[in-house]
Amino acid sequence: MLRFMRQENSKIRDTLWVVTCLGFVLASLGDARAEEDLKVRGLQVYKNLCADCHGDDGKGVAGASESPLHGTRSIEDLTRVIVQTMPEDDPDACVGEEAEAVSRYIYNAFYSPASRLGTSANRVQLSHFTKQQYAIALSDILSMSRGNAPANKIWKKGGLKGIYYNDRRHNNKEKKIERIDPVIDFDFQEGTPSEELEKKEEFAIRWQGSIWVEEDGDYEFIMVTENGARLWLNGEQSPLIDEWTASHGPPRENRATIRLIGGRGYPLRLDMFKFKDKRSSMVLKWKPPHGPEEVIPASVLSDQGTYEIFVPTTTLPADDRVFGYERGISVSKDWHAATTAGALEVAAYVANNIDRLAKTREQDEDRADKARKYCEKLVELALRRPLSDDEKQFYVGRFFEGEEHLDAAIKRCVLLTFKSPRFLYPTIENNPPDDFDRATRLALALWNSVPDRALFEAAEKGQLNTLEQIATHSKRMLEDPRAHKKMRDFLHVWLQLNEKEVGAKNEELFPEFDPLVLADLRRSLNMQLDEVVWSDSSDFRQLLLAEEVFLNARLAKIYGVEREFEAEFEKVRFEPEHRAGVLTHPYLMASLAFHDLSSPIHRGVFVTRRLLGRNLNPPPQATEFKDGDFQHGMTTREKVAVMTEPAACMSCHNVINPLGFSLEHFDAIGRYRDHEADKPIDASAIYVSEFGEEIKFNGAKDLARFISENKTAHGSFVDQLFHETIKHPIDAFGEGTRENLIEKFEKSGYNIRELWLEIAKVSTLHRHSPESEGSDVAQN
To answer: Nearest-5° angle of CA 586, CA 592, CA 598?
Structure first.
């Protein structure tokens, strides 16, 4: 009986187990069917309500180019955004289950890590040097080939060394005075520069040292004198300006333009003489990129000498910026022609200067051998790794064999090297990447250039494999002027400083706002950026919260600061109750304004896109702001509110306007004001976040505080720094990379330099997938 009961209980247990399993299977089938139904439903909602703007593939459509679907939002975040704001013309049309269904579809199709990595836009693609990287790399390779540091830093600034001679010739026996002249702006009239010079009819002066330039571009130099003079810049092979014959008449103006790479110093020498001229004078001016014509200031002059730097005059076509940052992936006939012209320029330079470069002389018996060894070193630097015997023969040796003329051998070797894909495409790597590949990645990340000798030697020793080794070199590299230049360039992109020149302002309203003031403001902003980034804390938040600004006497007068200035620029606590770091810096406020009015729209769009990282669709129709269309006595805020009142506009302007209105206390030149059109300024606003939260602002300081504490803004800054410095999508470097960088950024106290070092480490040590690189190319 007992046995029977046990058997029956066993059958019951087995039956219950089968039923339970069947239940699980049926439930799973039900869940799968429900999931499939949800997917179908989400796709249908997407086609009905979303595809018109975002496209069937999520890449956006013509006329809505700012609407591609990509990013790192979760399903929950997407649902909240859709419920609150989508579709833009009727946000109430997609709520509840429909919003959840379409959110799941969008996440799985466009936002999930798997979907992001599956698109070409989120892979490390085969890419060549960008336009800027190309120029810097050529310059640095030629400097290193001579044994010089790739870039030099002029630490001591304040003027040029002036040497005064009591003779029209620069005769050391007649040298009477040596001093530092802060600027070259002299009118000696009918006398002499000093009582120590006894001959009124004749004397000579030599100014020598270096000039520091901040930005890449064309620099125009202007020499004004009635005497004989010559100006040498970046080498003494030939003068930039040669007017060695005195005019015996009024001062004449001589101009010449030269291209320079920013973030380094260049040797400068200026000679003049007076002989039987009635008068004597000398003024040395320049017109730098984004600057006015002015006497060259002491802040960029040094009495220290430095060495010549090769600066290519060939420029590549503009880089691809489809995804918001420069990438070297566009190849065209123009690009091929430009790289060929660049290689020919380098070949001509090397051939014409081979005796200086190879430290030989034309009559030396071993001249060809020294030239060949120099070329081997040059090729090694260009290809960023040691050459095998076969490679030495292929790139160099074969051209130096036989009776071929040395000049032709050098040119053919250099042309082959600098037109080689292995030079032009730094992403061509071994599989897996070796230490020389990692050295190249690190140099690009921090310098936009090629490895220096220290990196090269570390790669030779196999010392670029670990986080600790990468960190050691990265910290050293941050001290290099190229790193400072690259960070400055990024911050200019972040603040959109180079997208357009600041326009002229209304002369009746702002008579004192001239090009010199604008140049002062740009210098002031640059100094503030440097002050924050290169401070001990390097705190991102201080970019938005700092209450100090760098001013000089000219700016202080315009912006109402009563103070005596001992230096050219001094850090001043400036309207601390109103100012908020770079957000309210007068240069930025002036750049985001009309010629006579503030512009809440320009300012709001800037904050939305650059600081908060939110996307905006193009306006449905082009509407020009015409001040004459509004009633007399209206404030700018009131005019903008009227102009953007239509529903089609408010889909974006309900985000843009509150952010712009918060900055209305600052006029067209960034000066603080309490009233406009005889009405008190209203800088209060209610901003609705992407998650539907309402945040109240009452002026710029509230806005700046919100941005500095906002996690989305932190993520946007991480994205922009990564993309501008690495030139590849952050998603291509592994799932969780972005989140990890944001977390480390926050834990570091928002340290910008530490973030940059983390980005460099991620880029340097990441192993790209073969399909992302086109690794078969690396074998050719």
So the answer is: 85
Classify residue 318 by its DSSP letter. P
Average pLDDT over residues 11-33: 46
Q: How far apart are CA 742 and CA 714, in angstroms?
A: 7
Here the tokens at position 685 are 């606003």
Q: Helix or strand or coil: residue 365?
A: coil
Q: Which of 726, 764, 766, 761 is nearest to 741 (CA)?
A: 761
Burial of 1 (0-12, 13-18, 19+ CB in 10 A): exposed
Q: What pLDDT, on the 0 to 100 scale, is given for residue 249?
A: 80
pTM attached to this predicted model = 0.85
pLDDT at 259 over 90: yes
Place of tokens 């897996």: 432
CB 529 within 8 A of CB 546: no
Q: Which residue has the higher pLDDT, 715 or 616?
A: 715
DSSP 505: P
Does position 123 have pLDDT exceeding 90, yes or no?
no
* Residues 6+ positions from 563 with CB-CB distance below 8 Å: 551, 556, 570, 572
**The pLDDT value given to residue 515:** 94
DSSP string, 520-568: HHHHHHHHHHHHHHTSSS-BTTHHHH--EEEE-HHHHHHTT-----SSS
Give the DSSP H or E segment for 253.
strand 252-260
**Confidence (pLDDT) at 82:** 79
CB 579 within 8 A of CB 639: no
C-alpha count within 13 angstroms, C-beta hemisphere, residue 255:
8
Distances (CA, A) of 332 to 338, 661, 775: 10, 45, 22
Report which of residues 134 and 34 the model is more confident about. Answer: 134
Which residue is associated with the tokens 């950026």? Answer: 529
What mean pLDDT, rounded, does the chain reach?
A: 88
Cβ atoms of 589 and 600 closer than 8 Å: no
Does residue 699 contact residue 662 with C-beta atoms inside 8 Å?
yes
Q: What percent of the chain has pLDDT over 70?
A: 89
Strands 217-225 and 175-181: unpaired
Count of other CB atoms within 10 angstroms of residue 388: 9
CB 668 within 8 A of CB 597: yes
In the structure, what pLDDT confidence band is assigned to residue 687 with cuts at 50, 70 and 90?
very high
Is pLDDT larger for residue 623 or for residue 544? 544
Spell out where 38-184 has E strands: 160-165, 175-181
Q: Is the peptide bond before 432 cis (omega within 30 degrees of 0)?
A: yes
Between the alpha carbon of residue 376 and those of residues 145, 348, 382, 417, the distances in Å are 10, 17, 10, 10
Asked if the model's pLDDT at residue 63 lies above 60, the reply is: no
Degrees to nearest 5, angle at CA 293 with 311 and 274: 85
- pLDDT > 90: what percent of the chain? 68
How many CB atoms are closer than 10 A to CB 714? 22
For residues 18-35, average pLDDT? 48
Q: How far apart are CA 705 and CA 527, in angstroms?
A: 22
Q: How far apart are the first and last CA of the chain?
A: 83
Residues 6+ apart with CB under 8 A from 459: 385, 434, 435, 436, 438, 439, 451
| 226: Cα separation from own chain's centroid | 42
Percent helix, strand, coil in the chain, to 5, is 45, 15, 40
The per-residue pLDDT for 32 is: 55
> DSSP labels for 451-490?
--HHHHHHHHTT--SSHHHHHHHHHHHTTSHHHHHHHHHH
Residue 289's φ and ψ, nearest 5 degrees, are: -60, 140
CB count within 10 Å of CB 676 equals 19
Handedness of CA 611, 612, 617, 622 (dihedral sign): negative
Angle at CA of residue 85, ends 615 and 100, nearest 5°: 105
Q: Backbone phi, then psi, for 641, in 5-degree steps?
A: -60, -40
